[in-house]
Predict the structure of 2-C-methyl-D-erythritol 4-phosphate cytidylyltransferase.
Amino acid sequence: MSDESRPSPTEMPPATRANTRTAAVIPAAGRGVRLGPGAPKALRALGGTPMLIHAVRAMAASRGVSLVVVVAPPDGAAEVKSLLDAHALPERTDFLVVPGGESRQESVRLGLDALPADYATVLVHDAARPLVPVDTVDAVIEAVRDGAPAVVPALPLADTVKQVEPAAVPGEPEPVVATPERARLRAVQTPQGFDRETLVRAHETVTDNVTDDASMVEQLGLTVMVVPGHEEAFKVTRPLDLVLAEAVLARRRLNDGF
Ligand SMILES: Nc1ccn([C@@H]2O[C@H](COP(=O)(O)OP(=O)(O)OP(=O)(O)O)[C@@H](O)[C@H]2O)c(=O)n1
Ligand SMILES: C[C@](O)(CO)[C@H](O)COP(=O)(O)O
């Protein structure tokens, strides 16, 4: 629905208006094992500021997001609360901090459990994707509000992908069993956007441990829609990703003149 055809908030009946509210859940409870030893990944510095603060700002930059729920490392909720207090964040946005769980799936569920009743749209955004541009966030929200039960931002792949028979011994050559048609493949990012009831049902129904919320909705038999992702929404997973993130941030600061 375009902005012109959507009723303005004051024209909507109260129930509908309340139902358009969007909250962002940020799972930030991971250790970051693949990044190497150190503090939990979300608390590590990027351009001198914790990665989590960048991710929170990226969500709060969208005028569609009025609540951010940060899912903190299990023993780090107090530290995360202090960090949010210490950094400038938009006044129009509310913040909640809850302790996370053993898996990403559990952390997201704990974030969902903390949501007040009047949020009908939920974004789930990795703290490990600190540089997602606001246009990507807005595109995901728009597609959910237009009626999709689940929306993911995604990019076409740069590399050909092979499906293999995994080697019994790591590092040994692996036989290729298929080459999926690259034009039909997409690399999925976050924020992923959901009709809240759908995401809650997915988390209640899917018991095998999956890291991608949208794939849980697929398991319900519902269609997940894809909107264009962004190169700068990459996930900081390994050490080289942190080098790239520092470079992207430095370029932004240069372009912004500070
Ligand atoms: N128990 C967990 C595990 C992961 N996450 C979050 O899920 C997001 C995506 O996970 P990933 O990048 O894989 O982070 P880690 O699990 O920390 O990474 P690793 O597998 O390298 O330890 C991150 O923001 C991470 O903090 C979480 O909230 N709770
Ligand atoms: C949700 C996600 O970021 C989509 O690409 C991804 O599934 C997270 O996976 P990870 O195993 O936690 O890195």
Summary: The chain has eight helices and twelve strands.
